[in-house]
Design brief:
- The protein is mainly α.
- Helices cover 77% and strands 0% of the residues.
- It folds into 2 domains: 1-114; 119-277, no CATH class.
- The protein contains 9 helices and no strands.
- α1 (2-26) packs antiparallel against α4 (93-109), α3 (65-86) packs antiparallel against α4 (93-109) and α5 (125-159) runs antiparallel to α7.
- It starts with a helix and ends in a 14-residue tail after the last helix.
Length: 277
């Protein structure tokens, strides 16, 4: 049952991808609405999968990388639909929907967890709070990254005075900058909260707040990049191109943190540390 629901979610995300790409090309309002509803249907199936796995396993399904991808994907889609309702940047779905589909597909081909096969380190309220806050921050900052890409494309069209295909289909620079600002001001506090709760949990379980684990170091670097970006936006008034490039840099460090540090680098954040033989 869970597997079928996950395939339904994957099909819905691919369907939303087709609809939003069609909207991007044809600019028909109905395609945009259908894309949003299809993605919401995919999110509903996705939610049921996570609920069923949590009940079956007895813990939040993040013990292996495939499960972590699936949970992050759920947070990303939910955050996108919420932002799309509050600050509609309609063409953003043409990037988020295929990314959501690829993340679900990645979770399907990667190893999955199982009931009971988990280290006691992955149980506890504070760890759940740490994971929730961190992934919420990652999702908002991913949208910040995607908005930054669109900003740089639109700015390039304006500078080159190419008022053609992309210029007519992308939002104004002001709209994109507003989206990036709100994603940053929401994502950064969530990311910070994830770091704080993670440190508290580490103190409780390991007896120390900080271990210079590879993921901790990379996370600190990403946090400093976003802290500089937010500080400069609020105090100096950084906008536009510089803010977009720094958002892209911060996201690239986050991507290495989420993927590389967990799979390839040693440390207690590695997924292999959490699964019992």
């Amino acid at each position: 049952m869970t597997e079928n629901l996950l395939y339904f979610a994957l099909a819905a995300y691919f369907g939303a991808t087709a609809l939003w790409l069609a909207f991007f090309l044809a600019q028909r309002e109905s395609l945009y609405r259908y894309g949003a509803w299809v993605m919401a249907a995919g999110l509903a199936c996705h939610t049921l999968v996570l609920i069923q796995r949590t009940i079956a396993y007895g813990y939040l399904p993040v013990a292996v990388f495939g499960e972590a991808l699936l949970l992050f994907d759920w947070v990303l889609v939910a955050a996108f639909l919420l932002f799309n309702w509050r600050y509609p940047i309609r063409v953003l779905g043409a990037l988020v929907a295929p990314l959501a589909a690829l993340l679900v597909y990645g979770s399907l081909i990667l190893p999955q967890g199982q009931a009971g096969a988990i280290s006691p380190l992955l149980r506890g309220f504070w760890l759940t709070a740490h994971i929730g806050l961190t992934l919420g921050g990652y999702a908002a900052l991913t949208l910040n990254f995607l908005g930054g890409i669109f900003y740089l494309i639109q700015e390039r069209q304006l500078k080159a005075k190419k008022f053609g295909f992309f210029y007519r289909r992308l939002p104004s620079l002001s709209q994109l900058d507003t989206l990036n600002y709100w994603c940053l001001t929401i994502g950064f506090p969530l990311f910070t909260g994830g770091i704080i709760t993670g440190s508290l949990y580490a103190q409780h379980t390991l007896g120390r707040f900080w271990s210079w684990d590879p993921k901790e170091v990379l996370t600190l670097i990403a946090w400093l990049i976003y802290a500089v970006l937010l500080h400069e936006r609020l105090t100096v008034g950084w906008r536009g191109r510089r803010a977009s490039w720094l958002a892209i840099l911060g996201f690239l460090v986050l991507a290495v943190t989420f993927v590389g540090a967990n799979l390839w680098l040693s440390g207690y954040h590695s997924f292999s540390k959490f699964v019992q033989p």
